Amino acid sequence: MATTTAAQRRARAKTEYDAFFAACPSRELLNRISGKWVALVLAALGGDGPQRSGGGCTGEPRPMRYSELSRALAGVSQKMLTQTLRSLERDGLVSRTVVATVPVTVTYELTGLGVSLHHMVRGLKTWAETHMDDVIAHRASYDSEPAG
Amino acid sequence: MATTTAAQRRARAKTEYDAFFAACPSRELLNRISGKWVALVLAALGGDGPQRSGGGCTGEPRPMRYSELSRALAGVSQKMLTQTLRSLERDGLVSRTVVATVPVTVTYELTGLGVSLHHMVRGLKTWAETHMDDVIAHRASYDSEPAG
DNA sequence: TGCTCTACGCACTTTCAGGTGCCTACTTCC
DNA sequence: GGAAGTAGGCACCTGAAAGTGCGTAGAGCA
């Protein structure tokens, strides 16, 4: 029977779509940067963190130690920091360097690719700071409207 | 006792951080666009969808009906489409227009703010298409390395 | 007159990112 | 010599997002 009109057509479309969906580079990018700590790590390694010394707040990429990151991203657990750094390293966005000092120290640094991504995330941040006020305003007026 | 050095310091920092974190505009933006269907809806309304007619694939923003969106984003459930559209409408990114035709039809359209956001998402897409190959390559080589 | 379409609403369930807690092996400080 | 720091690993838990399924109210269609 060819009565499979609306629901089944959609189910079929969904199946086809999912394969494409999983491989979509934009989706992968969104999944990567929407991680709770990814953008923070990028910002910290990119020099956007809270600068306690120096003048401007532009900041330049610089290597940071694990414990330094842990302090800069106050609130992150060791597990999540490790996990985030590992996934970023896996994707070639940061490089991990082990230094055999007194207690073994590890430094993380943005790669070229990571710097590129960081620039884009900074663009996101700029957009957010420019337009999110409008969004919040809309949200407030929408919520205050009588539901109808 | 003032022995609360490492763990408790971190717990305290986390508490302070969370308040800032929740209000961070960049975080809000990421939360918004990282929704599974948000970027797709933006792309569809912005004209980036699969163009079955016409020449270039640049596309211009145009209003679309609910069912039209449902077909364009093959695989989305009605619930998620509605939910996504509502949240976008709430944030002033799309406008919803009810037309009292034979069966009541609803059209959705990007607002100015929505178009602005769509441009940025398009930037993300461009970055993804340019650099994600590198990322995938890194990922593959990382995975193939002997774990050590 | 039973089926489908439109544009949803509601309730339940699944899934997984993120969080918590406890462990390590080595070293330095007091 | 016990506490804390360094750089994590492992196992379990939770909460929110996403998915599934069913209902609806009016209308067209064979």
Write up this protein.
- The structure is a homodimer of 148-residue chains.
- With 148 residues, chain A is mainly alpha-helical.
- The first copy, chain A, has one domain: Arc Repressor Mutant, subunit A.
- The first copy, chain A, has six helices and three strands.
- The first copy, chain A, is globular and about 65 Å long.
- The N terminus of chain A is likely disordered.
- Chains A and B meet through helix 1, helix 2 and helix 6 of A and helix 1, helix 2 and helix 6 of B.
Biggest sheet features of chain A:
3 strands, antiparallel
Q: From N to C, what is the helix and strand string of chain A?
A: HHHEHHEEH
- CATH H-level name of chain A... which superfamily? Winged helix-like DNA-binding domain superfamily/Winged helix DNA-binding domain
In the CATH hierarchy, the architecture of chain A is Orthogonal Bundle
Mean pLDDT of chain A: 83
Oligomeric form: homodimer
| Strand runs of chain A, count | 3
Helix run count of chain A: 6
Fill in the CATH topology of chain A. Answer: Arc Repressor Mutant, subunit A
Which class do the helix and strand fractions of chain A yield? mainly alpha
Shape of chain A: globular
Largest inter-chain interface? A-B, 47 and 47 residues
Report Rg of chain A.
Answer: 21 Å
Q: How many domains of chain A?
A: 1
Summarize the amount of helix of chain A as a percent range.
55-70%
Poorly predicted ranges of chain A (pLDDT <50, ≥5 residues)?
A: 1-5, 52-56
Strand percentage of chain A, roughly? 5-15%
